[in-house]
Amino acid sequence: MATIEVGARVRVKESVVVYHHPEHRNEAFDVKGKEGEVLEILTDWNGRPVSANLPVNVLFFVGKKKFKAHFRPEELEILS
Question: Environment class of residue 71 by beta-carbon count within 10 Å: exposed (0-12), middle (13-18) or buried (19+)?
Answer without folding.
Answer: buried
